[in-house]
Amino acid sequence: MTESLIDAETAARVGTVAATATGEVIRRDWQRWAAAVGDDNPLWFDPDYARANGYRDVICPPLYLQYAVLGVASLSSLRPDGSSGAVSGSLSFPNAPRRMAGGESTRFHLPAYHRDEIEMVRTISSIVEKQGRSGRFVLVTWHTVYRNQNRELVAEATTSMIARP
Amino acid sequence: MTQLFYDDVEPGDELPPLTVTVDETQMFFFSAATYNGHRIHYDKQWARDVEGYDDVLVQGPLQAALLARAITDWIGRRLAYVLGSSAPTDGAVDTLMAGQGVCRDFAHLGVTICRGLDIPARAVAVYAPGLWPMDFHAVFEAYTGDAWHVHDATRLAPRQGLVRIATGRDAADTAFATVIGGRAELRSTEITAVADGALPEDRWDLPVILP
User: Domain B80-174, CATH 1.10.238.10 — does that match?
Assistant: First the structure.
């Protein structure tokens, strides 16, 4: 029996809140994101166009919402691989240090506008060890809920991460 | 602005492909825009020597955003490709106002806009490998830069694979059949044009000249 990639302390965190964060949705920030994606959808850029399509102003690209809540990471707080674990609960897998994005599945309920205040609550859904073609890995799945300043549900997401030895 | 609506699509419908070659500049800007310091996306030495990858990795969320873009680009196109949405006698203005049509309407609108800009333009009926059925697709050509360049506003099939059937002023010149009086029933027709090897990839931003 080989040693598990998941230690008991980390395994015990399943079902608990991994992180909460709040942040303001800023137009220029989402527009920089859209430009980096090459996404020139006028809903993100052109208020007249957005209004003609039933919104009161330009809206935040739904997939950008998850970045609006990110805080400020001091360089000394980063992990050796340069990543910040702040919004994911700083889970640590010393026997599986190589992380990468898994998948994401998000339901968007409401648009977010410039200067909306978003609160994120992220819960750990599961932490399991899997056997893949390239060997063992840890699959972490989170469930995340985003609400705005009126306590309205804006989005909920299921996100996963892979950590490999 | 018209767009595709929920009722217009069916499971199994095929989306036009979005082809993006992600380079390190785009990856850097995406990491910056998402406040992502993960070294596997910009530190080649770290990606190779510490994590054992061939090169820096394209961010998973960038791939997700590009997938989303493939859908929204398709939904938000100014014209929707809707089978049975138009009549053979519709003009370009009808198509523009309705915001939907079939390939013939897209080609007519393209021709009209070009002529409005004093660019010579003509309609072309083609076989279009990659399209199903692949016969009698309609595109248009505009005379720019000393050549007839082919354009396909539907982007349903790569232009490099098109085979010209007929060229004319509009679809009336290039129709495969015109019924003047009475009634004709098309029982069957089967023509197949295939590309040698893999279907060419059309990036849509480069000029293509049809033989």
Answer: no
pTM equals 0.64
Residue contacts between A and B (CB atoms, under 8 Å): 81
Which residues have a Cβ under 8 Å from the Cβ of A95 and sit 6 or more positions away? A3, A5, A165
Per-residue pLDDT tens over the stretch B86-97: 777 787 777 776
Chain B residue at shortest CA distance from A32: B33
Residue A119 to residue A157: CA distance in whole angstroms? 13
Going from N- to C-terminal start, the domains of chain B cover 21-75, 80-174
Tokens standing for residue B37: 């310091």
- Residues of chain B neighbouring A73 (CB-CB closer than 8 A): 35, 37
Tell me if A50 sits within 8 A of A57, measured CB to CB. Answer: yes
Which residues of chain A are within 8 Å of residue B48 when distances are taken between CB atoms? none
Query: CA-CA distance, B211 to B202, in Å (whole number)?
Result: 16
Q: Indicate which of B24, B38, B43, B78 best probes the interface with A, i.e. most A CBs within 10 Å of its own CB.
A: B38
Decide if A67 and B33 are in contact by the 8 Å CB cutoff. Answer: yes
CATH of domain A8-164: 3.10.129.10
Residues B160-190: tens digit of each pLDDT: 999 999 999 988 898 878 888 888 888 887 8
Residue B187: partners with Cβ closer than 8 Å, 6 or more residues away: none
Q: Does B40 touch chain A (CB under 8 A)?
A: yes
Domain extents for chain A?
Answer: 8-164
CB contact under 8 A, A82 and B43: yes
